[in-house]
Amino acid sequence: xxxxxxxxxxxxxxxxxxxxxxxxxxxxxxxxxxxxxxxxxxxxxxxxxxxxxxxxxxxxxxxxxxxxxxxxxxxxxxxxxxxxxxxxxxxxxxxxxxx
Length: 99
Known about the structure:
The protein is α/β, with parallel strands linked by helices. It is about 35% helix and about 25% strand.
C-alpha cells in the first residue's frame, strides 16, 4: 500500500473499546489497545501523506436479522455500506455502529 500510495486498513472491534462496559472489561482492554494503535497508525500515515487510510469501526450491535427482543441489531447488509464509505471516501477515522 505504501509503495502504491493508496489503500485502506480497517480495524474492527466492539463498541466497548470506545464506551467501556464493565462486564466486557477483560475483552475490551485489548480491543481498546488495538483501537489506539489503529488511530495512531492512521495519524502517522496521514502526516506522511502516504495515501493509505486507516479507520477504526466499533460495532455495538448484534449482527443478525433475528436478535432477541430488546437487543439492538443490524444485518451485515446494513453495516456493509459504512465499510464501503471508509474505503471509497476516506473521510472518517472512526465509526461507531449502534442500533
